[in-house]
Known about the structure:
alpha/beta; eight-stranded mixed sheet; four-stranded antiparallel sheet; single chain; 333 residues; Rossmann fold; globular; 2 domains
Amino acid sequence: MTALDRGGPAQPLLIARGLEKRFPLDRRRFVHAVDGVSFDVAKGETLGVVGESGCGKSTLARLLVDLIAPDAGELIFDGEAVGAPDGISKKALCRNVQMVFQDSYASLNPRMTIEATLAFGPRAHGTSRAAARARAHALLATVGLDPARHGACFPHMLSGGQRQRVNIARALSLQPRLVIMDEPVSALDKSVEAQVLNLLLDLRRDLGLTYVFISHDLAVVRHVADRVMVMYLGQVVEIGPAEAVYGQALHPYTRGLLASRLSLDPKRRIDQAPLAGDPPSPVDPPPGCRFAGRCPYVEAVCSERAPILQAKSGHAAACHMLVAGSGHRRAPS
Length: 333
């Protein structure tokens, strides 16, 4: 156990409990972007986060790196509460948790060279100019870019894949322990996507990193994630080991997502959408299960009472069909 690893390998690196974030529309109405989300991230693992657009994935990512403050709930980083008087400071959290954004161009300053971009973080944390410059060159080499060739470039002079490598290098500039990936490869073509994904896997292995990997691409998440968390309308509906979630999904929404994947076999084309209808409004979420209006197994109890996550062997889902005595006809007796 190192000085940085205060709680040892058994202690989760990140614990989220009851996170909530609402965005006001007016004095009375709010968008419930993240609503009571709880999960742990073990040291050295990759937690994949999936769900339809608007389910709260990106808002959750910004909560985890403290770009926005939660309205309720708590974050604990390696045993220290975030924002508490005796917990981890914001500066220390910034050093330990970094983020790679989806838009590789918009997330870079167009007026700064790549070298200056990578040196900025270390300089802000007290590193000398020469050491920060050397760190920038080392980071470029780490992500497969030539420091002599690319260090003096501006973002518009690089391709999308090269810019995303720069964003990854910038996230590593303060030697973080946890990196939040918000759709890091969605804007890249498939050949470049594969290169960046392999780079991320290599960096995780070589640097001992922990990832929270957010994506709408289920195939990508299965390739990189150890565990998968499925979100729907601001809430967690299923979480478990990747092979368990992909091989035996428990929640109807997760099964619908997996059935929506495109097949390369023309004989297995989808004739009907596995998920019908639209999610309810996050401004006025319905009582009970939020998936009830789209679920093929909906019964009265689903609209009356919200299900809670039920865990079994590390695989949990929020569905009345899994709980004995819940009142659902498909529930175990």
